[in-house]
């Protein structure tokens, strides 16, 4: 068996890659496990230097990386060049996280005659498996947030390459491994495997202690169930599917219809609608004129190329199924293209259609937006409360609607991980305060994030040293604080 790199625009075969056998996967896992002590011994400063070197290596290869990814995904050179920069920036953020040191969460309680001496810190969980996303060949792939945060935590990483961009995956791996070598680390701190069989074996392997996944609900649930059915169940941090509702209040519709329509269409069709945070369901006041304003923008959209045949077929099937629903109509369509292209669609109806189907509460990956009209504030709040767990929820409102906005925000907070106000959810900033996660089915672990500094905590676990002799303590827990870490001493935060 093998995996072929395909041209996303023509479907032609470009290059063949051998699938990884179960036996080869076992050897990869053993090598990764052997490197755990090396990453641990390097300490935060050493791993920070490694991540910085990896970031430099990606930047040095940006043109070749973007060209390969464009051939395999058709996402366009400008978008992909920017994504490489985002990916290297993400690696540098985790280098900053390591140098700052609070990720270790060091807590020291002195013995007082009743309580023992307790010293608590975070340590790496072990080897981490990562499953690449189709729609972000860099930022959520081989060198993406799962890999960066796991390496920062001190965990060797094994990435299962996505079948829609295997060549991009190999080129990214080469850059990361060159960066590791430049910083004095073995190249195999990051390794790559190909093929479905290897992916399943990766989750089952007893040396793998956690998995990060970005993909579909069926694929994610399949692997999640395997992870939890192991003799030793492991954490499975899956990002699966998100509707990302966007709410427009009567006041916002009255004052900003044209502005919202333009921004909404741009957001919903960015990257051919293949963003995990695409606003997929819009709730707007009846007779607001929003659909008519959006329709003008939709008719100007050219034919769209999706990431692969399976995604294109799934979009066409999902769009046709939704178009056939009673009470729903096609308000506008983009331009029609060739057989390997899809047409953008704008569907509309009344929220009452949700009384007979839950299909509109499911994500449809691709360039389609559904706008449903509501008649009252109570109806809006009730419908919003029926939406499943989401990565994001967005509210467009006016200052004088504070009471309504507060009511809606309370509902949104229960259903989403990131609340967006008077803007659009596409574009997930990488920083210290970001939250990219939400209640199921958005993610399998809503208390965690896959983007931003806090993503590192997924791949750490806590250990307490009780009455430990000083000569056996790790450096992070020693009285003289040689790593100059922020620490909590008897409940009081102390800074170096």
From TrEMBL:
<dbReference type="InterPro" id="IPR044151">
    <property type="entry name" value="ALDH_KGSADH"/>
</dbReference>
<dbReference type="InterPro" id="IPR016163">
    <property type="entry name" value="Ald_DH_C"/>
</dbReference>
<feature type="domain" description="Aldehyde dehydrogenase">
    <location>
        <begin position="13"/>
        <end position="402"/>
    </location>
</feature>
<dbReference type="InterPro" id="IPR050740">
    <property type="entry name" value="Aldehyde_DH_Superfamily"/>
</dbReference>
<protein>
    <submittedName>
        <fullName>Aldehyde dehydrogenase</fullName>
    </submittedName>
</protein>
<dbReference type="Pfam" id="PF00171">
    <property type="entry name" value="Aldedh"/>
</dbReference>
<dbReference type="InterPro" id="IPR015590">
    <property type="entry name" value="Aldehyde_DH_dom"/>
</dbReference>
<dbReference type="InterPro" id="IPR016162">
    <property type="entry name" value="Ald_DH_N"/>
</dbReference>
<dbReference type="GO" id="GO:0016620">
    <property type="term" value="F:oxidoreductase activity, acting on the aldehyde or oxo group of donors, NAD or NADP as acceptor"/>
</dbReference>
<keyword id="KW-0560">Oxidoreductase</keyword>
<dbReference type="InterPro" id="IPR016161">
    <property type="entry name" value="Ald_DH/histidinol_DH"/>
</dbReference>
């Amino acid at each position: 068996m093998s995996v072929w790199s395909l041209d996303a625009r023509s479907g032609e075969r470009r290059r063949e890659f051998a699938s990884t056998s179960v036996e080869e996967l076992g050897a990869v896992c053993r090598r990764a496990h052997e490197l755990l002590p090396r990453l641990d011994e390097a300490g935060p400063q050493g791993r920070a230097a490694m991540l910085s070197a990896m970031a430099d290596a990606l930047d040095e290869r940006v043109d070749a990386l973007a060209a390969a990814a464009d051939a395999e995904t058709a996402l366009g050179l400008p978008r992909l060049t920017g994504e490489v920069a985002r990916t290297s920036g993400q690696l540098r953020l985790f280098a900053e996280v390591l140098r700052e040191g609070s990720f270790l969460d060091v807590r020291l309680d002195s013995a007082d005659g009743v309580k023992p001496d307790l010293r608590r810190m975070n340590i790496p969980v072990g080897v981490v498996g990562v499953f690449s996303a189709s729609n972000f060949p860099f930022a959520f792939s081989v060198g993406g947030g799962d890999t960066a945060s796991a390496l920062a935590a001190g965990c060797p990483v094994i990435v299962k390459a996505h079948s829609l961009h295997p060549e991009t995956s190999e080129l990214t791996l080469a850059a990361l491994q060159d960066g590791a070598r430049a910083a004095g680390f073995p190249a195999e701190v990051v390794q790559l495997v190909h093929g479905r069989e290897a992916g399943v074996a990766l989750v089952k392997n007893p040396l793998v202690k956690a998995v990060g996944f970005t993909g579909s609900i069926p694929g994610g649930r399949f692997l999640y169930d395997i992870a939890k059915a192991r003799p030793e169940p492991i954490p499975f941090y899956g990002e699966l599917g998100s509707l990302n509702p966007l709410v427009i209040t009567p006041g916002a519709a009255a004052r900003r219809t044209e502005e919202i329509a333009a921004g909404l269409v741009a957001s919903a069709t960015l990257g051919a609608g293949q963003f995990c945070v695409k606003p997929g369901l819009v709730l707007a006041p009846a007779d607001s004129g929003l659909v008519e304003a959006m329709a003008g923008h939709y008719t100007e959209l050219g034919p769209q190329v999706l990431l692969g045949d399976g995604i294109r077929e799934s979009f066409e099937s999902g769009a046709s199924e939704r178009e056939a629903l009673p009470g729903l109509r096609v308000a506008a369509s983009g331009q029609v293209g060739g057989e390997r292209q899809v047409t953008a669609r704008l569907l509309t109806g009344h929220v009452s259609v949700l009384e007979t189907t839950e299909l509109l509460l499911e994500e449809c990956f691709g360039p389609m937006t559904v706008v449903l009209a509501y008649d009252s504030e109570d109806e809006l709040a009730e419908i919003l409360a029926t939406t499943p767990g989401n990565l994001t929820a967005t509210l467009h409102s006016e200052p004088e609607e504070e009471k309504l906005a507060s009511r809606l925000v309370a509902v949104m907070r229960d259903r989403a991980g990131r609340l967006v106000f008077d803007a659009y959810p596409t574009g997930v900033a990488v920083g210290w305060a970001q939250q990219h996660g939400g209640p199921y089915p958005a993610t399998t672990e809503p208390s965690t994030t896959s983007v931003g500094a806090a993503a590192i905590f997924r791949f750490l676990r806590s250990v307490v040293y009780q009455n430990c002799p000083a000569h056996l303590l790790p450096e992070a827990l020693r009285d003289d604080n040689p790593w100059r870490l922020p620490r909590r001493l008897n409940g009081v935060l102390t800074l170096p």
